[in-house]
Amino acid sequence: MREPSPPAPPPWSEAEVRSEINSLTAGERTKLILIARHYAWKFRISFEDPDEFVHEAICRVLERKRVWPRGVEKLRFLAGVIKSIAADRKRALNRESAALKEKEKVVGDKGAEERDAANEDLERIMVLFDDDPIAQKILKGMEGGARGKDLQQTSGLSPTEYESKRKKIRRRIEKLKT
After folding, report:
1. CB-based burial, 54-69: b 16+ in 10 Å, e otherwise
2. Which helix (H) or strand (E) holds 113?
3. What is the pLDDT of residues 128-172, one digit of tens each?
4. pTM (2 decimals)?
5. Does residue 19 share a domain with residue 96?
6. C-beta of residue 40 within 8 angstroms of C-beta of residue 46
7. Helix H or strand E segment including 173
8. Which of 78, 104, 120, 167 is the most buried (most CB within 10 A)?
9. Structurally, how many domains does the chain consist of?
10. For the chain, what is the radius of gyration of the CA atoms?
């Protein structure tokens, strides 16, 4: 017959948690940021700053939304909280995406069909210029709304070279249409 296991020790107190969080070294913070980047990549979540997950994890711990059991190492615990936050965000994004797709189905969004067709056209055009990265750069700029002098400057071409490249692009696109 097995003996009952001893009761688990009580979790860290609020003061102990604050002390542990305040004692995070620069190296530990850097590790947490790298962990946040890893989970953002793993769950395919884009965000502006990996600090966002780290700060959220620390806030949840300090607000006692996540209880820190004794015996669990600081970085391991915070990494688990970061992973949980990333998974929650991914689930929320999936729900929003599913709701948006459902709404498009209900409304019969013709704009989505037009965008899909435009994206397909753009892909076909970009393939025409696989041999010319500068032309692709100009086309991407045009897609983004850039015009004239802006396109010339971002492509790094002189005005004459830019006009030649623009004519080349137009001629190849016209061939595609025929």
Report:
1. bebbbebbeeeebebe
2. helix 110-128
3. 778 888 888 888 888 777 787 887 887 888 888 888 888 888 888
4. 0.53
5. yes
6. yes
7. helix 159-177
8. 78
9. 2
10. 27
